Sequence to fold (153 residues):
Amino acid sequence: MSVTLKINGESRTLDADPDSPLLWALRDELGMTGTKFGCGIAACGACTVHWDGMPIRSCQTMVGDLEGAEITTIEGVNGKAAKAVQEAWNELDVPQCGYCQSGQIMAATALLAETSKPTDEDIDIAMDGNVCRCATYARIRKAIHAAADKMEA
Fold:
């Protein structure tokens, strides 16, 4: 079955089983390996992408449910919030091993696109389910606050 999606601003037709997870279509069919496989049950956040601007877990989102959707991956995330998050991540040296970071960045970008000055509680809610095995949670929170400050400037 063919499914047409707009991925990172470009119309792409995938020849994929409709019950195939988006994660594998991105990685295996399109070669977009920035989106990571973590757990396969939508519990870790490593596979987070945006569907029409909202963060979703691509390991549990089936290609057949996405016809006509606009998908943004870590390779294509852009805009004011994304730029601020990426700059803050670099300045504060957030990653340790880095494996979870694409999912963390995608979740943080979605948060800041909706909430320009998040509280710690807002951050906790938005980032819940994004697991960092290296436990850089304090740096992640600090970077989100720094990114929010950058967006205000």
